[in-house]
């Protein structure tokens, strides 16, 4: 328990499970009021019930109305939004030759347009206060690409583009924007990969293992907190050194 985010209001998208849920727990331990935003009513309620000072919001990041309703409710209840963690993301993998247009569009919609939607609807409030921190979920595949991930890796490269652009546009107005580039983290998204590929990934990480959601939560915590007050526009790789 600490006070690194004392009294801050944080929205975390995709926080019902995986890295988002671990981040919500960690932020609450540091004194934040955590707004769990995810697509299923049951999942957000279950997640929020496990975290002190957490509230549940049904938000589909591809649906701007659902985001706006949540933002309005949060501002009504708390009068502030200090932190936005754009964590929601999906995969629909296939090699270029086999990828359908529907697979391509679905991943672009959630991982890329979803980040644009949430940030565009939250930032006007942060501008009004003259402060805020936005942290976006990119990935190591947003730096290096990945076999079978035409759609996903394009979105994660795109998120770094957003991050560097918004860091320039918003920095002088008191809002820092950064990205996290996780390597391979043991969540459902990664557990869905074939065993032989997972073993190969473990070998390629110089720490010899996958990362944990809790380790990613600590990276989000640093970038979202005032400890990172001079960090703006970075894409911070947290991968056990997989790219070395
Ligand atoms: P996960 O699949 O465990 O959780 C993702 C959450 O996002 C789920 O609760 C899901 O319901 C939610 N979500 C999906 N579509 C949504 C939508 N349209 N609106 C709102 N919420 C939605 O995923 P995980 O592994 O925790 O990943 C979190 C983020 O980290 C993603 O952006 C992912 O791309 C990124 N990432 C994950 C890595 C990993 O190894 N697990 C590696 C690099 C990046």
UniProtKB/TrEMBL annotation:
Which residues are the signal sequence here? none
Q: Which PROSITE patterns match?
A: ADH_SHORT (PS00061)
Q: What range(s) does the Ketoreductase domain occupy?
A: 8-183
Question: What's its catalytic activity?
Answer: a (3R)-hydroxyacyl-[ACP] + NADP(+) = a 3-oxoacyl-[ACP] + NADPH + H(+)
Give the molecular function GO annotations: 3-oxoacyl-[acyl-carrier-protein] reductase (NADPH) activity
Family matches, as InterPro entries: KR_dom, NAD(P)-bd_dom_sf, Sc_DH/Rdtase_CS, SDR_fam
Q: Which Pfam families does the UniProt record give?
A: adh_short_C2
Q: Which UniProt keywords apply?
A: NADP, Oxidoreductase
The record's annotation in PANTHER family points to: 3-OXOACYL-[ACYL-CARRIER-PROTEIN] REDUCTASE, SHORT-CHAIN DEHYDROGENASES/REDUCTASES FAMILY MEMBER
As for family, the record states:
Belongs to the short-chain dehydrogenases/reductases (SDR) family.
Function field: Catalyzes the NADPH-dependent reduction of beta-ketoacyl-ACP substrates to beta-hydroxyacyl-ACP products, the first reductive step in the elongation cycle of fatty acid biosynthesis.
- Xref: NCBIfam families: PRK07231.1 (NF005559), PRK12826.1-2 (NF009466)
Spell out the protein name for this chain. Answer: 3-oxoacyl-[acyl-carrier-protein] reductase FabG
